[in-house]
Design brief:
Two copies of one chain form a homodimer.
Chain A (H helix, E strand, L loop, with lengths): L14 H8 L3 H9 L6 H14 L5 H9 L3 E6 L5 H16 L3 E6 L4 H14 L3 E5 L5 H10 L3 E6 L8 E4 L1 H14 L5 E5 L6 H16 L9 E3 L4 H13 L6 E4 L2 H13 L9 E6 L12 E4 L2 H18 L6 E2 L3 E3 L11
Parallel strand pairs in A: 1-2, 1-3, 3-4, 4-5, 5-11, 6-7, 6-8, 8-9, 9-10
Antiparallel strand pairs in A: 10-12
Chain A binds a DNA duplex through α2 and α4.
Amino acid sequence: MADEPISEKKRPATLGDVARLAGVSASTVSRALSRPDLVNEATRERITWAVSRLGYIPHGAARALAGRGHRAVGVVIPSLRFGVFAELVETIQARLDEAGFGILLGHTGGDPEREYEQARALVERGVDALVLIGNAQQPRLLRLITDVGVPVVTAFDYDESSALPCVGVDNEAAGRCLAEHLLDQGYDEIAIITQPTLSNDRSGKRVDGVASALRQIGRAVRPEFLIECDGLAPSARDAMGALLGGEKRPRAVVCFSDLMAIAATAECRAQGIAVPGEIAIAGFSGIGLSDMVDPPLTSVRIPAVEIGDLIAERLLAHLMDRAAVGSALVAHELLLRESTGALREL
Amino acid sequence: MADEPISEKKRPATLGDVARLAGVSASTVSRALSRPDLVNEATRERITWAVSRLGYIPHGAARALAGRGHRAVGVVIPSLRFGVFAELVETIQARLDEAGFGILLGHTGGDPEREYEQARALVERGVDALVLIGNAQQPRLLRLITDVGVPVVTAFDYDESSALPCVGVDNEAAGRCLAEHLLDQGYDEIAIITQPTLSNDRSGKRVDGVASALRQIGRAVRPEFLIECDGLAPSARDAMGALLGGEKRPRAVVCFSDLMAIAATAECRAQGIAVPGEIAIAGFSGIGLSDMVDPPLTSVRIPAVEIGDLIAERLLAHLMDRAAVGSALVAHELLLRESTGALREL
DNA sequence: TTGTATGCGTTATCAA
DNA sequence: TTGATAACGCATACAA
């Protein structure tokens, strides 16, 4: 304590400091830390002692520079405000952390431009791999990826023709599956509240799925029944208001997130419209709350945790053992609940 | 195109490559990139040309090693599953990104041990600053922080006696404020559903606040009315079940997150208990959904975005201009809604 | 305005 | 089993 120079704390201890204190060379310390089995019992002990004595912490950048890789992967998502992305990020972080990898985050707000910028910023920061959302990357982003040769996996959308390996659900099938359920229940006029489909391929494919189901019975999605909003509660509620205020009312509304579905339900409640009595409402994602609201929400569950696990697993296999990374289709799941219960007999 | 060697893409271009192609020295390129005003118009153009020609991307680790700092800050949170943390992280990331800083994430699951480990891992990765949650860090974490001299700001709890600068609300006051509202409404038996207070100082202080309000009128929190759960919906619902199944039923239940409050409401609904008719329920955080559910939820809003902004601002001021970072108290806000409406006349 | 030299902290390659 | 030495890619001080 008292024998410590007062203000020595400024400069963090380096490998050299430890070496000096332990009376060995820097390389030996380095070895002792990375492959302890290669160094003599006694020396190793002196070294660990010196390490803790000095509070030595390895310098990540120096390690990376010296060729060990940065031990970090970048994850670029639209926004953490959407539960599925938060779950994905958390899962990936937890799994990678076990292997000593960290994760760097980037948000796009759903803007493809920003997706490129964020991805590039992460690459510049030196991430060893990248996780992106969906399979609609801009060409220049694809080019960047191949140029720097960084491994990438995309999440949430499975597309066999994707340029990048992807882990996700078949969004078209998911949309269709939900629409078919609604049709089965007798709801034949289906509206959709979605995030902008231009920048969100998952939503676009879900719309296709719904349309496809409708086409089966000779119908189509009416243009005025396809409403885009920013995905957050207030605008989703407004969207529902617009739907209810239109000339013709839909019998069912599919929202591409549970959050939007809950907001839509709120608008119905405010207007005294029974759900599912007069209008059925369904969501997407199957967040933990969807069965806690009134009425419990029918939803297509997207298994974010499973997707995150698979991605982390693939990334690690590649990063550690140079394994090739391939795509994986994970199953969505239709959660049938009251919000799309049988249509009330009129 | 065709004149490019086939497999040159393996090794990413370096400053030296750019320099060679532009016919200047590496340092000139370095300057052209960091302080363009210091280099001749013409050379600068040749350099930018060479840069894009080669698809040159600066090597973050090398930059960091050469003394420019890592340009990254670490954020250690319990879990992204809780909306407030997701909002905090997103806000901080967005603000720091503008200044060229990235963020590295760590999750603790509410475990103080893991908080230490994650923080340490981030320090090792070279973050220039750290954001932690609450003001109950383990002593060894505090020691680590002073040892390595990394700037830290804590979020969500304001505590003037905190060892670290903090930006947050007065949780004790927030708890008291909510309890007082309930007492005003005539609910005098108040129960609490909370995350473990041992590892969560915010919750502990809120409990204190509620207790304090009760003490004002000569009452106290009954031990069996204080239930801890993991904070997620299912266990919160179970907690509510336990409360309802007890000998004596509370008249009001305060949940320390909106998610838990919604789950608690669901349990009441399932048991046919009117909210707020028979039991009032209140939440915390004021997430976007709290006014969309039925009944709309009374909640104490914790301004996560504002807190994130303030933190990012302080961090940047310190990182860029070496400004000292101080604490800030931000105001919570009582959102009065139906879930704690007047007690039904019996 | 530009170039040269040096160092950042670590790992890897080689000898000893 | 250990130590010396050379990278790693970039940013500076300093010289030109």
